Amino acid sequence: MSRPRAHLLAVTILALALAGCGTSSDHALRVTLAALDTPAPTSPAAAPLTPAPTCSDLKASLRPPGTMPKPGAMPAGSYMETIRRRGYLIAGVNSVQLDFGYLNPATGQIEGFEIDLVKQLARAIFGNDDSSHYRLVALTVPQRLPFVQEGRVDVVVDAITITCQRKQEVDFSTVYYDAKQRVLVPSTSHATGIGAFAGKPVCASAESTPIQVMQALPHPPRPVGAPQSIDCLVYLQEDRVDAISTDDSILLGFEAQDPNTKIVGPSLADVPYGMAISKAHPDFVRFVNGVLATLRSRATRQREYERWHLVPDDTLPPAQYDG
Predict the structure, then answer these.
(1) Which is the CATH superfamily of the domain at 178-272?
(2) What is the pLDDT of residues 280-307, one digit of tens each?
């Protein structure tokens, strides 16, 4: 059994043991485990490349309200008041991306930069980020937008790349992290970039934007879609693919988990992350952008960098608004 697969098995066993305690604080963990058991996509292969819609300002989002409501006093009739009356925020997150959203085997809790952002949203609504005020639902890539559109979560904070196509389906917050698409290879590889893999198998999450970026290259590799990004690391270790090409935020985690890998080559594409929110709730989009605006102070950013080992220039870039 390969090391990452054994690690994930250990995480699951530990989480199941913790879930058996039956306390109310286990709710988020039980929801997470249920999501992790979701069947893999029926067709992991990449979908055919289709013409994408264009948008005038990809990274622009709705402007925050002039005055943010005080925690615990959300405007009547607002979606934030609906969340407050429910008693908790429901957020779709990742559970296998180191430093962003990761199920820690030592604690049985999902933690990371994006989880801290969820806590900030809960604090802004309820006045504190007690775990009773938010629920975390671990999602696969294909689940993220449907869960927002169907109202199964209030927001998804899961390294979603903002694209014009996706902006037709959901609304996005301002950019909270600007990643770059790069390439991960075995440390013994002599490849210096994606050009070395024309026609060869290169892995990324199924239905993700890195697949589309690879398909559009003049001499593309053969994209291999995996159910989740962590599966790509397993594929690489098992020699099922020659490389992985996805967000450098993900690849840096893989490199830390497996010292026999390295990141090579320049950026293939800009990868701006935004929180996905239903188009039915523009007031919530504005509210979320107001919360993010308060997090762009130097002191707050520095604490997050130090805690999650993020690159300062890539995190919480200046906001852009379009209305």
Answers:
(1) Periplasmic binding protein-like II (3.40.190.10)
(2) 999 999 999 999 998 887 556 667 666 7
